[in-house]
Amino acid sequence: MAGCSEFTLIGRYLTGLGAARADVTLGVGDDAAILQSPADPWLLSALDTLIEDVHFPGDMPAEAVGYRALAVNLSDIAAMGGQPRWAVVGLTLPAMDEDWVAGFARGLDAIAQTHEVAVVGGDVTRGPRAVSVQIAGTSALPPIRRDTACAGDDVWVSGRLGEAAGGLAVWQAGQQGEPRWAGLVDAFLRPVPRLCLGQALQGIAHAAIDVSDGLLADAGHIASQSGVAIDLARAALRPSARLQAFGGTAQATAWLCSGGDDYALCFTAPVTARSTVAQAAQNARTPVRRIGQVRHGHGVLLDGVAVGGAHTGYRHFER
Description:
about 325 residues; alpha+beta; CATH 3.30.1330.10; 2 domains; 10 helices
């Protein structure tokens, strides 16, 4: 709109978003936010950038972009078992579009309110449409890391892997209005950060990661950083019925293994903790299932056979 500046957008749409937290002395409006240091001994911080036509379709609703921009950050905190607290947002727009920003702010605010996150600062600038969100959280217990998986551990995963990739395919096929594919589309547009599960797994899981680049790729990160092999069982990698109905079994399995954007949690835990994991998942109201084991060695295996590089998920600088 004529006469509308980036300062107007910040003041009108990006101020006061999220939860009103007692540990925020000053949020948006100054050179920096003023936050009170919590009593928790561990401070967690993560940043993600979403770029139009790379991480989300150009015709994706602004409200969904706002929701998803924070959800992917919350998932990083969830993987470590943390409690999210504060976020800052960088928004780049190709042109002034107040309606788009208003929708973006609604989506961002909705998920921030749900998870008691205060949006305490940010910036708006001109350029190709992109969103960067930096989030900070805390943990009262030692955070769960990627580099602490142990040989002999079970490998577990939450959620319906592959459905986000299937939902993107539905969208790209122009079938997002079909009621039978609504669950797949929602899995892509509105991923659920598994914060309760991550927190419930503290002190139980040896290692964890959120599945953002695909199961095989992210399991590979645990394997390489822990110095172990992750051996997944093909029989346990079962795509959901609706994913198979849309893409067929072969394509659905490929999405499950390498599709990415699920933001489920993949974690390892001792065999002796199976009942404890099951109880933690039940308490978090998040279904989980065992999909393999951690072994001595390196890399990711399927039924004992090494997985090739073609299945290692999305990489920005490799085509």
